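re: that chain from earlier
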Amino acid sequence: MAVHRLLKWTAALLAAGALLLWPEATFDGHRTFAESRAAKDNLHLLAQVVCGEARGEPYEGKVAVAAVILNRTLDNRFPDSVAGVVYQTHAFESVSNGEIYKETTEECFKAARAALAGWDPSNGALYFFAPAKTSNAFIWSREQVRTIGKHIFAK
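^ sequence. v structure.
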């Protein structure tokens, strides 16, 4: 993963004044910085949304959902923080219906960490949807870039 992309994601995840600790050893594929309080809070929120939106989906689909949230933090049309993206009005059904407050599994945390480490199986998508559950014209008008499980990922 390009360092500039990691730095942009890291900046989006840390609260003002938070301490960023860079690892001394080579990264293990799942962690790119020590999990400060702000980073842990954002990791937990990201994992909650992954579980709420992709429960029952394959692992790759879970990582892709997390990647969409991170991709949005890098796009000037969206808020520049994980919380800002997650809590944007009507952005995620799991926030509206409370699914994000159900149990968060270790697999969802693992998927969130994988996305934070740079894996983006969504191919840069900014949106995802379950075609069986939506007739929204806007979402269907987006360029579809990948299908994983029951979700279509789009730009």
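Residues 21-27, 31-35 have pLDDT under 50 and may be disordered.
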